[in-house]
Amino acid sequence: MGQVGYRDGNWKRQVVEYWLWCDEPTIEVCKILKISRPLLNQWHRWYFKTRNLPQKSSTHHLSPSLIAWQKKQLMKNKKLEQQLALDAQNVELLQKQIARLESALKDEQLRTEGYSTMIDIAEKEFKIEIRKKFGAKR
Average pLDDT in the 26-31 region? Predict the structure, then answer.
């Protein structure tokens, strides 16, 4: 907690904005920035009290841990984009496979209907019962 004194308002504001917009759990943000959760909550309250006030220009730059955290977030986003691209390709392949299987199903249904019609015609023409009669015999 002794390190908190050098952190100015702009740094606090950046930390709170990163925390609000990132998808990291609060505990992870606190570990990365080496601050406690109550302190982050205090900064959060301060941020909402002072967010509409005009800001002075700051010479303070982002800390290395915050930059590393931001890079980690960018890498996660890239991985998510790559996964989404792979998922889109898989969806296209699955849609093609579904179309092919639906076509094959339609062909089989036509074939089945043709066989059924052929049996009906043969039963009428030759007067022979071809289809098996289902049911219990006594």
Answer: 83
